[in-house]
Design brief:
single chain, alpha+beta, five-stranded mixed β-sheet, about 65% helix, flat
């Protein structure tokens, strides 16, 4: 009988253990279906990799200023314009100034960044002497990436406003959403313009060239000197001075009632101070001084 009871109790314990294991199994399977955040972490990782890849393609703006001494300024200007066109660039501006025999000039060109150093070398070969040269490089990658991010945000905002515009229930709500949408679209156009400007600045380098003749051919006597014209100018200056003095005299005469009494009082006070003390003749002070 005792053995039967022990066997029965053992059987009940085994069945209870199996029941507990079966109850815990669904919980374990339920916990394994949770890991959804792994997808979002992968997405953020992919976006981070894209940003890193875009930063690695750095945008560098190269600029240069160079001053050249040349035999013929006009001919050098024309050669530089032809050089810019031959490398795939263009002339931004060109200026020629000065008189015959002392002509100076300046020209600004943009050339592809890949031909920047080559163009500088050819410019040096055009000159008799390089008077000065200055080059610079500016990294605009961070600014470019920032504008790109702002563009993506603005375009996402535009999409949200378009969705709201389709759900608008009355005219007033439609007008408000459309006004906000117009503002976002203006911002998008501005950002696109800045991005395009940065891309063009990095793609086309700016070179500013100053052109000076080797030696000035100006004569000892300045061209255009005329004694008669100088005499006329001197006479005109004399007449202008006389007119100014005459105008000043007229102003003083007109305002005489204002400044005349003041001047009269000042003169009277000065005269009174110079008068000798009362009771003495003017000559007595002089005699007393001689006696001493």
């Amino acid at each position: 009988m005792r053995r039967f009871v022990i066997l029965l109790l053992s059987l009940l314990l085994v069945l209870a253990g199996l029941a507990c294991a079966g109850a815990k199994a669904p919980e374990t399977s339920q916990e394994r279906t949770v890991p959804e955040p792994a997808l979002s972490s992968e997405v953020s990782k992919d976006s981070g990799d894209a940003t890193t890849a875009s930063v690695e393609q750095r945008l560098i703006v190269h600029n240069a200023r160079i001053s050249l001494a040349v035999a013929d300024v006009l001919d050098a200007r024309n050669q530089i314009a032809h050089l810019a066109e031959s490398v795939g660039g263009y002339v931004v501006s060109s200026t020629i100034s000065g008189e015959e025999g002392d002509v100076t000039g300046s020209i600004s060109i943009r050339v592809p960044d890949s031909r920047f150093e080559q163009t500088l070398g050819e410019l040096r070969s055009l000159a008799t002497r390089v008077r000065s040269e200055n080059t610079s490089a500016k990294d605009i990658t961070e600014e470019y990436v920032d504008f790109k991010a702002r563009l993506r945000n603005a375009e996402a905002t535009e999409g949200q406003y378009l969705a709201l515009l389709g759900k608008a229930k009355d005219t007033e709500e439609t007008l408000k959403v459309y006004e906000r949408l117009s503002q976002v679209r203006r911002e998008i156009e501005q950002i696109k313009g800045k991005i395009q400007y940065l891309e063009q600045s990095a793609a086309l380098s700016l070179i500013e060239i100053e052109l000076r003749p080797i030696a000035s051919a100006r004569g000892l006597v300045v061209a255009g000197w005329n004694a008669l014209e100088i005499l006329k100018g001197a006479v005109r200056g004399l007449i202008a001075t006389a007119q100014t003095l005459a105008a000043l005299a007229i102003w003083l005469l007109v305002f005489a009632p204002l400044w005349g009494p003041v001047v009269a009082v000042i003169l009277w006070l000065q005269r009174r101070r110079r008068k000798p003390p009362s009771g003495k003749a003017p000559g007595e002070e002089t005699k007393a001084g001689n006696a001493v």
